[in-house]
Specification:
It contains 9 helices and 12 strands. The protein has 319 residues and is of the alpha/beta class. The longest helix is centred in the C-terminal third of the chain and has 25 residues.
Length: 319
């Protein structure tokens, strides 16, 4: 069956991934380049152009009708620009215009990476069938996105749902964003590891001081490692409860590397959520692990483009 495709880009500080995605959310062609994150904005754009050129070399490129971009943020969907924290060469970079030029004028939809992952989880993943959902990515940073009333809700700027920068500790540590006590400053992987080290945890002989190593220590019963995950879970629970109270979501989906710790994170998170999500309408809030994995950014960028084109929220899955 002949079906139109969407070109998708997933842009982060480590890699720039691209794909042609069909109406079922299947990635039919893929391309990838490392992000030259420490180089000039033009060098980063060259990597994006390389990915697009590889996609354009596919015999199916002619079926592409739109481009969706999920980018590390902040993004400015209204202005068509991106200023990713971890790509210093891009500040107010006109990515939408440049990608439009590179693809012969295809319509381009830009959203933040957390919004893209939310679109993927709602279309085909753990939030499928939920009209009101919060999806989060907990890894090097903490990002997120919202589905409200059955439709992706990126907000005018494309950043809505950025739960990592809700303050949950009023006099807490300064966050690099400029505020204090942000969810990200407590719950991201590097901050879980930092707190464990500050409180006396020591890496093993291999010297691995990452959150993955802290998780291994916690599984082995190290009380400092356990406490660092519990503190992260508490911060996530407070942020999730605040969001649910504000916009009335019934599921929070959590992905990213830190979610890979499984029950080390989810057990204290569910327990803390009972303490914070106390009003009657948020007591039924469920928490689920994300299921879309590494392709979520690409699938979600495609979903966002399809939603923009149809004006009808996230695409229904063809059967």
């Amino acid at each position: 069956m002949h079906t139109d495709l969407v070109a998708a880009l997933d842009i982060g500080g480590t890699k720039i991934a691209g794909a042609l995605v069909d109406r079922d959310g299947t990635l039919v062609v893929r391309a990838q380049r490392p992000t030259p994150a420490r180089e000039s904005g033009e060098r980063v754009m060259e990597a994006v152009n390389g990915v697009l050129a590889e996609l354009a070399a596919s015999p199916r490129w002619g079926e592409a009708t739109a481009v969706g971009i999920g980018s590390a943020g902040p993004v400015d969907a209204a202005g068509g620009t991106v200023s990713p924290v971890n790509v210093p060469g891009w500040r107010g970079f006109p990515l939408v215009e440049r990608v439009g030029d590179a693809t012969g004028g295809l319509p381009v939809t830009l959203v933040g990476d957390g919004v893209a992952i939310t679109a993927a989880e709602h279309w085909l993943g753990a939030a499928r069938g939920h009209d009101n959902a919060l999806c989060m990515v907990v890894s090097t940073g903490v990002g997120g996105g919202l589905v409200l009333g059955g439709a992706l809700h990126p907000g005018p700027s494309g950043n809505a749902g950025h739960i990592g920068h809700i303050s949950v500790d009023l006099d807490g540590d300064p966050c690099p964003c400029g505020a204090r006590g942000c969810v990200e400053r407590i719950a991201s992987g590097p901050n879980i590891a930092r707190r464990a080290l500050e409180n006396g945890w020591r890496p093993g002989p291999d010297g691995d001081a990452s959150a993955v190593a802290v998780a291994a220590a916690a599984r082995a019963g190290d009380p400092v490692a356990v406490a660092s995950f519990e503190r992260a879970a508490q911060a996530l629970a407070a942020g999730i409860a605040a969001t649910a109270t504000l916009v009335d979501v019934d599921i929070a989906v959590i992905g990213g590397g830190v979610a890979g710790a499984g029950d080390l994170l989810f057990a204290p998170l569910r327990s803390a959520l009972r303490r914070y999500a106390t009003l009657s309408f948020v007591q039924q809030l469920t928490v689920a692990p994300a299921v879309m994995g590494n392709d979520a950014g690409l699938v979600g960028a495609a979903a966002a483009a399809l939603a923009t084109r149809t004006g009808a929220g996230i695409p229904a899955r063809a059967h």
